[in-house]
Amino acid sequence: MDSHIFPVDLDKASRLINHGPTVLVSARHAGVDNVMTAAWVCALDFEPPKLTVVLDKSSKTREMIEKSGAFVIQVPTVAQLQLVNTVGTLTLATEPDKLKKSGVELFGIKGHDLPFVAGCSAWLACKLIPEPHNQLIYDLFIGEVVGAWADVRVFSDGRWHFEDADSSLRSLHHVAGGNFYAIGEPLTAQD
Amino acid sequence: MDSHIFPVDLDKASRLINHGPTVLVSARHAGVDNVMTAAWVCALDFEPPKLTVVLDKSSKTREMIEKSGAFVIQVPTVAQLQLVNTVGTLTLATEPDKLKKSGVELFGIKGHDLPFVAGCSAWLACKLIPEPHNQLIYDLFIGEVVGAWADVRVFSDGRWHFEDADSSLRSLHHVAGGNFYAIGEPLTAQD
């Protein structure tokens, strides 16, 4: 595990996705790992932390999550722009070497039998909360966050520090096709 | 209605929130209008367009949406930083003049009996899809988008143009407390 990666308190986990980044969703089932891109992910609760993610019925990762009951949501960086776009375009169903082609490197975190994508800025290990009606009708999945980690070069003391970190560590915010925005400058409202 | 505001095709409505902005949620019931801030909003479907929004049980706006079955999700701008923070802090339950204190100006759009917040960059008129289990257990509300509009100075031809518009029109992305990030620079992946 990269020496920059440190655990994040679970009561601060929602902050990792509060600013609306596009994420990578990864899962493991029956000895196979997969990763997909998702813009439609959202925090749902603080304590215990939960989140929602929309997973299309055509997605192989969805099928694996339904079977394994677990997944990782990770926040990719500007440096991973091409990887994020490729992982969001190829499907494991027709491209068995999708991860290799996309340049995805995986690593493990002790206590979690899940594939974590290297080079991201934050990771949330999730346990699926089965809600068959939401999954079937809306493609909407709910996860409880059971572990959270971040790259301390850009997230520490419970908050992002994009403005002080290298700009390659900024989060990506998907628009459409291959088009994204990076997160920008900090603003603070007066009390 | 401001001369910069034009309708957005419903099949492009999800793009208004795809990049994860913090939004304002507004509702009208029994002659009362209210507005709240929400970071936990997310696209859910393209056709018909749907979205999810998390509304805490303590929120007066939630109660109004449950009764009226309709609400507006709008994307505020950097110029509205202070308004967004104030609207997210005060509650109508104890502050009857919350909107006045926050500097909120409302306008109407023909065919929709809903309060729209002036000065935002995009508006999505939504019809509540009642899902009592989600609402009760998760504070999770699903809306179908029945009308969408944007300020053409920053969203046109079905996409955002933050990089070409005045920086005061950029979207806000909430972190915690009074802290936000503005959306940043565009990035395009290669095919």
Protein architecture, described:
The structure is a homodimer. Chain A is mainly beta. Chain A has a single domain, classed as Electron Transport, Fmn-binding Protein, Chain A (Pnp Oxidase, Chain A, Roll). The first copy, chain A, contains four helices and 14 strands. In chain A, strands 1, 2, 3, 4, 5, 6, 9 and 10 form an eight-stranded antiparallel beta sheet that branches. Chain A is globular, with a radius of gyration of 16 Å. Chain A starts with a strand and ends with a strand. At the A-B interface, strand 4, strand 5, helix 2, helix 4 and strand 12 of A face strand 4, strand 5, helix 2, helix 4 and strand 12 of B. Strand 14 of chain A pairs antiparallel with strand 14 of chain B.
Task: State the main characteristics.
homodimer; Pnp Oxidase, Chain A; mainly beta; 4 helices; two-stranded antiparallel sheet; 191 residues; eight-stranded antiparallel β-sheet; 15% helix
